[in-house]
Amino acid sequence: MGASLSNLGTNGSMIGPGLGDIPEGCVARVFLHLSPPEICNLARLNRAFRGAASADSVWQSKLPSNYHDLLDLVPPERYKNLSKKDIFALLSRPVPFDDGNKEVWLDRVTGRVCMAISAKAMAITGIDDRRYWNWIPTEESRFQIVAYLQQIWWFEVDGEVKFPFPPDIYTLSFRLHLGRFSKRLGRRVSNYEHTHGWDIKPVKFELSTSDGQHASGEFCLDETELDDGYGNHKRGYWVDYKVGEFIVSGSEPKTEVRFSMKQIDCTHSKGGLCVDSVFIIPSDLRERKRRGILK
Amino acid sequence: MTQLDRLSVYHWLNAWCIKPVGGALVRQEPEYILLALMGSPLKKIMLCSSEKEIFSVEEQVMVQHSVIINNMIEDGSYNHEESKIPLDCVDSKTLKKVIDYCTHHTHHHNDNQEDLEAWDAQFLNVDSNGLYDLLMAANYLEIRNLLDLIYGTIKNMIKGKKIDEIRRIFNIKDHGFTPEEEEQNRKEYPHFY
């Protein structure tokens, strides 16, 4: 080997063709094992990589098997004639449905389906009575609005969604904030004037699916004031309360999920709470994000 | 020593209730030993590299691994008595390595996974040009498991690395883009970050 003179390879090296000359088809096979952000980064390597980074075969493998169901939520003119890569880009931004009160999107790294459901889509007991509940517009919600509870005895929030989730294990959680918040002189300030009652009894969170799965949890949303001077650890920021998990096996085209949170012990009142939304996220994706592994 | 032709071998195996699979003799450990004891040489085929060097290799080894060679044997276009299979795009050094891979995996397919993986890692301990040659040969001969192994290795070489570093590893001196195309690249992909 090496007895004959090799031609200059297209990669400009003196010793014959190398990995820079891998044809586009082979690069596409390698891309099947890499994530979308990695593929987009590698598109800048050379022409073969750039071509493979746009290949339908690569992006078809990143889309969920039922991505057509997601496309049904989008006006057809927005996705006709799009390459599979562009379809992935389209679906990886939040796609609103149900009058904009729900959103679904593909996680950019794994291509798995995630969903957020606004408090606006939920049935909240007493929501129409301004003595109890008010709607507060805010940038801190992806739906630009949250429900603020001033005070009530019967605290109940119910919701449901019926959707063609791809097979996976999903975690459902409620996004809540004790106290209300505002911006004062450029700084975020929390106000707990109405916050009371959450440390007396826990709130019960539940979910159930149309195929008979159940999960539930109980949490006290607040802590009784402690004298240790360290302050309250549950106030002042958004908390995701995990209700539980459900499995989508794929045997049914659509999965129906019902969820609720309740504190209906009417011996005490409670209040001073913001309810933003419910998230439905694949469980190990949620775990990796919480541990800061995925960006 | 008895020379067994293909038909005799089939009859013999049938007598022992052992079934050949898919036109190739699937190597089962005891039968392999029996055949060796009977003194019959296993059928060989001739592969010819781009440098006109001939390699003799067990037919069943190549038939098990290479779809292209399997098809040639199956459809009868290969005549055992006379022909050799010309592989004009595979040089001797690479062909020898490919034959090594197929032979090892045929003879050692009952080894435990760790040992096989260690052997594979050692096998792929080549420079990036050597890896390219192996990739092209495996692609041409359609050797699925070798291809998957090489794709996995390439993936590991590029995963998590910056573009400049990959260009250095792959020895890419000229990426082939014009400055305008480079700029367009930078603009085209930011929304994924």
UniProtKB/TrEMBL annotation, chain A:
InterPro entries: F-box-like_dom_sf, F-box_dom, PP2-like
Domain F-box: from-to ranges: 16-62
SUPFAM superfamilies in the cross-refs: F-box domain
Sequence intervals crossing the membrane: none
Domain of life of the native organism: Eukaryota
Protein name according to UniProt: F-box domain-containing protein
Automatic annotation (TrEMBL), chain B:
Pathway stated in the Swiss-Prot or TrEMBL entry: Protein modification; protein ubiquitination
Pfam families: Skp1, Skp1_POZ
Domain of life: Eukaryota
GO BP terms: jasmonic acid mediated signaling pathway; protein ubiquitination; ubiquitin-dependent protein catabolic process
Keywords, alphabetical: Ubl conjugation pathway
Secretion signal, residue range per the UniProt entry: none
Similarity comment: Belongs to the SKP1 family.
UniProt name for this protein: SKP1-like protein 11
Annotated source species: Arachis duranensis
Taxon lineage: Eukaryota, Viridiplantae, Streptophyta, Embryophyta, Tracheophyta
